[in-house]
Specification:
The protein is mainly alpha-helical. The N and C termini lie far apart (60 Å). The chain has five helices and no strands. Helix 1 packs parallel to helix 3, helix 3 packs antiparallel against helix 4 and helix 4 packs antiparallel against helix 5. It binds fe (ii) ion. The site of fe (ii) ion has 5 residues, from helix 2. Fe (ii) ion binds next to helix 2. It comes from Halalkalibaculum roseum. This is DUF892 family protein. Pfam families: DUF892.
Length: 178
């Protein structure tokens, strides 16, 4: 299935859908790990919510594949793979829990934006191919991704970033005393 040649917009839509499907699956593997790395209760809650939402989004894609009578597997999403690698690398380099939480939020937002681009593209292709039924389903997920991005911005600006800023000041003050 991998490296199937692409000839038309339908093929490109399939490529995009399989890419999104693999991306959602990869996130299901990484989210429990991020839950363990998260320090604040608010972030743990948001990661758990994100995990449940990702299951729904994966199911929605499976429904789309059933409607198209196509197989969901076959594409590995190197974009999400790279973003997940960056997420873990960055989180492990953060020495304060509050700063690590801020890093997890930005990483989740990077993933969100990558997905928004993918779902937006898939919607445009589905509409072009007169599959408005599929476009509707994809739009539900795009709306969720956008809402989740806004939720992450909100918790970052109101809770996590102020705490991370404080933790930096405490660290600096500690070093100055030595
Ligand atoms: Fe998603």
């Amino acid at each position: 299935m991998k490296n199937v040649e692409i000839f038309d917009l339908y093929d490109l839509l399939m490529e995009q859908l399989r890419d999104l499907y693999d991306g959602e699956q990869q996130q299901l593997e990484i989210l429990p790990k991020l839950d363990e790395l998260a320090d604040s209760f608010e972030l743990e809650e948001i990661v758990e919510y994100h995990r449940k939402e990702t299951i729904r989004q994966k199911d929605r894609l499976e429904k789309i594949f059933r409607l198209l009578k196509e197989e969901p597997e076959g594409e590995s999403c190197d974009g999400i793979k790279g973003l997940i690698r960056e997420t873990l690398k960055l989180a492990r380099r953060c020495k304060n829990p509050e700063v690590r939480d801020a890093s997890i939020i930005t990483s989740l937002q990077h993933i969100n934006h990558y997905e928004m681009a993918g779902y937006g593209t898939a919607i445009a292709y589905a509409k072009q191919l007169n599959r408005h039924d599929l476009a509707e389903l994809l739009l539900e997920t795009l709306r969720e991704e956008k809402a989740s991005d806004m939720g992450l911005s909100e918790i970052a600006e109101n809770h996590i970033n102020p705490d991370a800023k404080w933790s930096f000041i405490v660290e600096k003050a500690g070093k100055e005393k030595v």
